[in-house]
Model the fold of this input.
Amino acid sequence: MIDGKNMNEEMRPEIPEREPERQYYFMELAKGFLSEYSERLKHPATYHITTFGCQMNARDSEKLAGILETIGFVPGQSEETADFVIFNTCTVRDNADQRLYGRLGHLKGERYRHPERIIALCGCLMQEPTAVARIKKSYPQVDIIFGTHNIYKLAELFCLYAQEGSRVTDILPEAERIVEDIPSVRKYPFKSGVNISFGCDNFCSYCIVPYVRGRERSREPKDILREIERLTEDGVIEVMLLGQNVNSYGKGLSDPVTFPALLREIAQIEKLKRIRFMTSHPKDLSEDLIRVIRDHPKICRHLHLPLQSGSSRILTAMNRHYTKESYLALAMRLRQEIPELAITTDIIVGFPGETEADVDDTLDVIRQVQFDGAFTFIYSKRANTPAAEMPDQVPKEESRVQFDRVLSAVQEASRERAALRTGKIEEVLIEEISDHDPSYVSGRLSSNLVVHVPGGEELIGTIVRARLSECHGFYYIGERRES
Ligand code: SF4
Done:
């Protein structure tokens, strides 16, 4: 932990104790270090952030970029060419760890070409002591290491590194506080993620998140509303409310507030056109939430509702607190109340002890619910989680066979669901020029389905009406319609 006692004499007396004032102090101080650094480089110092994992990490990376740009770093093209390189890591699945080590190995070989490069690692993997020990031992080129609970301290850590010239490690075992008003740089000017809670209390038996992101903490509603109001003043028309389990939002606040109550308040913000949220744990999805989605057209017609398994036996072993039957009842209730709602899900295949009959139950749920989309994963064993110690770990080859069955069922269901919209006229928020054809732009429906329509750059960030004319399975080609 850095408390100022490591700083030199000129730095120490004025360091504010309160946040975020303290971090703004360090952002100012860092400007001096940055100009020395840029002089040595003989060009304005650039940065690049590589983000692994989920939307929470993506949002954290926007804050890291905001801090770096406030200091004066300019965006770089790639991790190979930038001067300050950050990897915001993930540890939910083993392949994200392996990809990180591969990238670090590559940069190690490049050290002689770019000896002044600064490399920083942060995020979930850094909350695991064994991973940090490995990095310290095998990757001496890593200069700054920090975790999930002190993302906001990047400027302070950069100052310490610049002053000491040796590696800085600052990992907090638990979150000490929620720090508001840290600058951020948005990837899209017209939409933004907004954290409403951090951490998770659910301890699903396969999941590392509660251990690396800590216990659930909700932001005060007034801070969330103020952030969204400011974003809308700055051109944002769509927000994605982020939490590991948004449905349990507000429980720990001194004046508890429910998630549906928060949504009702947010829906009042006039300039805001669309509200999305993720992730919804099925066990906490209330009737009130169903009503609030149904009654507020600004709330997008898309719900991500992780199933994980369709077998009640496996769900118990996963510590998910719902059954096949209760999940099906909930999904049917949603379909009945809000027929146009797209329901997407996550499914894990190959959880310890899973048999072919369990996968048959998962297939049955897929066929009954007809998911609009699904992320399907093969179970990845995470050290120190209860599932890692369970008997009957499923061999990878067996999981792959079951995975293919699940994948083809979800693809068939989502193709059928998408096709139901053919010929309808819907609103599309245009996000970018199409990757495939520069005379087209790409955007998303309220249901989150991608649509490509003819048009140019001037449409980006606007909502247009389009006839969904050609369904290509997971996206549409549309024709613009005047409103
Ligand atoms: S709800 Fe379960 S799967 Fe989601 S973050 Fe919490 S522990 Fe992990």
